[in-house]
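Protocol step 4 of 6: record predicted structures for both targets in the notebook before any analysis. Target 1:
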Amino acid sequence: MTTGKHLCDMPEKLVFRGGFGLKKKQPNVLLLLPKTKGPIGIKNFKKLIKDNFNLLEYDDIATEKLGIFNITDVNSLESKALAISSALEKWKGIKFHIICHSTGCGLGTFITKQNFETCKSIVLISPWNKRDKEFSSIQKQRIENSKTLETITYLKSEYNLLYPTEYIHKYNIQFKEYIFDQKNKKVDVINIEKRLKSILDCNIGDELHKLKLPKLFINAFDDKLMKVYHGKELQKLCTNSELITLNSGGHMLTETQTDELILYIKRFLNSLGK
């Protein structure tokens, strides 16, 4: 365990995949994804991003395994974003775009704010606007579930929240196998509570509306976690912004609507140039 230090003073401890500038004619993209994933996963999404852009991915899961998230100032998304910004000094002066999803939207917002001279645009997938009564209730219930439910029951409750019913039915065997494989693992109550509280403490709209760069919000009508009104509120708050709402896909659009998502992201980023 590392103690008594600030995360932003140890940027070399953060794990990244890929890099900027590897293909000179393609835009640079910083990818910020949540820890949660389903049995199908997001390898295809990341592959398609990598095929079309210079991809630098911040790996939150690998970074956490190093044990540095026991540091004093890591409880907020802003402090974690500051650490990522410190690590980006390696690519100082290089222009880049941010693509972020779910929890990553909080990180992406603060990184954009901290790197306003080099960040050219931000794509926010399944974002939230701010803490409100309904959103707080959902997140607090998730925290309570992590404390009281057995692992299998907890995972089922999460997947029912994050994925459309028809998607779960389509991949019913894969979901059952994935949950069965996790049955002997304990639910990480401490980190779940820390992560969800950090989301509730972060009002994205308060920060984003101050930023002039182009913004693309993508969400889905059937997202039961970051409900569709969040995207509408963000677009109303933010200048130089576009909102695309998909008919279906739930919260985990990087997994459930990969091709459609990539299509809109490519169109948006290519319209801005390198």
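Target 2:
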Amino acid sequence: MSAIGKQIKKYCTKIGLTQEQLGQLLGVTTQAVSKWERGGTPNAELLPDISQALGVSIDALFGREEQRLTASLARQICQMKNEDAYRYAFSICWAIEIGFMQDISALDDFLNKFIEHSAITTDKTDYFAKMMQDGGVATARLSPDFHHFFLMVEPKSSIREQLADVETLRGVFELFADKKLLKIIFYMYSRLNTPIAASLISKNTGIESKEVDRCMEILCKNNLATRSSVATADGEIYSYMFHQESSVIPLLCFADEIAKKDYHDFVGSFDRTKPLL
């Protein structure tokens, strides 16, 4: 199928326009429209009329409108300072979250709430927007000084098929359920990622040295830390460095969200008809 034919079919389906109806609007046969949708390309002089009939730009017929938007956003973010870029990106994520409501009348209200709430520094309330729909899952946390966003596009197969087996996942949760391991993770992630001796970990966490060695061995086996030996006048000692594993922070954020009792839902949509997994 040609790019134009694919786009024509997409936009016809979106607005509920049949091949016959589009043909009548353009003064062509139903067979001609069918040919376009099966891979043919309409004459160039028809493109303005097709774009008008479908209510889209000619760029959209070539599939370039989304590409241009994506490229424009990427260029804007590239030119910003890192902190400003993340704040700007989250404002886009919030707009995406609200857009999933598919309620144009509510857009201004919720976008204004984002602007107003972002300016509040005394309110410590956590606000969440949650979407569970057939197209995927999206959640956003909107607190004065803590924003994050998650978006999952629905896979063609089930979500369950994309995940590791139950025993493997249980092992991950077991790791973070160990109080001493979690305490060490919080300590290690709160400092610059430089080599650190087990004795210093023990001193700052209050965990006995033998237990620190046990915990660090587990973290190394799970690729969350690495161990190296250092020769000293008193003999060989081990030092550790944490891997800057980006999945740990989202996992802690979601665990915190599940544990929360006092939060408010800004908006939610739970019209999913498919099984969750």
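Step 5 preliminary note on target 2. The mean pLDDT is 85. The longest helix spans residues 82-99.
Proceed to step 6 after PI sign-off.
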